[in-house]
Please model this.
Amino acid sequence: MKKTIASLLICLSLASGILAATIQSNKKSTESASKGKHRIEIKINGIKNAKLMLGYYFDSSKYVMDTVPINNEGVAVFKGDSLIYPGVYIAILPDMSNFDFLIDKDNQEFTVETSKDDLWGTLKFNNSKINSDFISYQKYMKEKQQQVVAIQQKGRENQANPEAQKQVSDDLKSIDREVRAKWAELRTKENGNLLALLVSLVEAPSMPDFNIPENEPKKDSILWSKRYLYQKEHYWDNINLSDPRLLRTPIFNSRLRNYFTNILIQSPDSLKPEVDKFLAKTTGNKDVYQYCVSYLLNYYNKSNIMSHDDVFLHIADKYYLSGKAPWATKDLLSKLAERADRIRPNLIGKAAPNLVLESETGEYLALDQVKSKFTVVYFFEPGCSHCQLETPKLYDLYNKTRNNGVQVYAIYTQYKKDEWTKYLTEKGYDWLNVWDSNNNSNFRTLYDITSTPTIYLLDKDKKIIAKRISVETLEKILSELNSKQ
Model:
């Protein structure tokens, strides 16, 4: 595969720069959240004269915030003249074993005691009710999980027994009701503190029963639609998306990713308004807003779904290039604008940019004048090792499908005509062969060509069906499209 190095550097620096600025900004917030002081004394029985690290969660990673000595009595003290950014923190022992605990905004002076041989079993907190409740909650959830595992095992052992299967289903529903009741109790009892937030982050919407008449011919599709809409509208219930404590939990990132990956329909027309609705709920806190805008831009920039570059472009235009991302540097905005301009002309579903290029015989062939049910636009060069593998496969597919309305508009991307025409003569590729000897068409920008080979598939109206696909994927798409006609 041959790639344009400059274009690759733009993409790579863009992907790394988006979240890097956010992480650095939030690290500074962590170091000094607000005025006050913190003092967290941790005693670990069985360890002395060593080091203890204090870590925290951000995005999908863990970071070390501080390191202090463990004295001869097994005591380590984290202290300072400012409050720590509230969130879930990690005490990391010398052997890298660790335990989580909560630091909220209202009490950052407490003591912890545990034993290195049984961190969770002996963990105790003094002057930190929220952490004592956190331990009780985790023990409760562990007990319920063990009950679920036992019930599921009964189900596997009695798969042929309908009564036993019904009992398993009833028992699992009963536990689900108990756990949801516990969550509701904790949200009320903890009254908006960090534990209440964590409970809300792990709780999925409880799907109601939708009464649809049995004789309704579209019952399944109506039920799917109702469930989809309910899940989408209630996914963030009981969660304040402007709460900065979200950023210091190990749950928010995965819940955010799940929402945009698994809950929402993955078409740009569905995703773009949902992106805007979601981000509007984060504007109450600049750190959460910055993280979420950066995360979503980065997510859709790296997505493997072809149409997602439309969502990337939407976020780039509406939030970054319109001045709604004050954290973005001039360099990042410049690279982002360049990347957006390369994506804009070749979005899925849009009309492909017309090209009028010279054939090997000196005639000019316009892409939009190619009369075929499907047109494959193929960017290649003879010396590219990947092209040497893919071009013969594409030609085989062309020979199988040419009588079914498939044409190939093959663009030689280099400037050595003799090399090109000799190659065509040797290989006998008799599809539409063209080149741009003086780079007048600007095809590299119009089709975002940073590597070869690159394949686009167009419909009869020259709208883009797919892009940047392999020959194998092209064959599958053509087969699926033909089967529908």
Observations:
- Residues 3-13 have pLDDT under 50 and may be disordered.
